[in-house]
Amino acid sequence: MKVKFMENKTYKILKTKTPNVTNEKFRLHSHEFYEVLLFIQGDSSYIIEGNTYKLNPYDLIIQRKNEMHRIYHNNQSTYERIVLWIQPEFFEAFNCKELEEEFLKKTYGTMNKIDAQLCVSSGIYDAFIRLQKYSNNFEDMYSTVVSAIIIEVLYLINNARFYSNDGNPDTTLKSVISYINNHYMEKISLDELAERFYITKHHLCRLFKEGTGITVYNYITNKRLMKVKELKEEGKGNGEAASL
Length: 244
What we know:
Number of helices: 10
Mean pLDDT: 86
Distance between the termini: 26 Å
Strand order of the largest sheet: 1-7-2-5-8
Oligomer: single chain
Number of strands: 8
Structural class: alpha+beta
Low-confidence stretches: none
Order of helices and strands: EEEEEEEHHEHHHHHHHH
Radius of gyration: 19 Å
Shape: globular
Strand content: 15-25%
């Protein structure tokens, strides 16, 4: 999914309400920025790096950049959310680098959900309501007060230490994804994975496709492309980055 930021802007806020939602437009993808999603209504689960989080109204989903994720809708009921996208440059621009810590310290696919009860009691939900109010229902997003409330949201997330780890009941899939995330710049084959995790290649491919929506090969390829792009942004040449 491509998200277009306005020039020189380091965040974007969006509220959507989709009736009769289907899964066709919600494929596994990743971003080069951080994402905070307030789930409002629907019958859905969020899948992040193979971990599945069942969603209830006012649950908060937190994602670091380059985490592979998708939402899965169990039926065609109305899907409503408020989503906040934050560029890494935001933390430096607003002199709040310490608030990036909660995104950076997580292991991929873990500690991605703050349950509704904590989201409300911690003040995060109220802050999103004020975001909507002071941005004129997200029409006027780029003002001092809106930026200040976004910083408040990040501060409250940093102080909400109790996360839900619903997890995926299939520990094999989680283990495979964890292994790939630690070794995707090395040569990885289906034969190696099947042998390492004591399953057949056929079962591995089916398990992976059902849990992530894409093949093992496509997952590894996406991870490598993201890493190469990251290295190029750090100043490495095309040949040097591609050889890693």
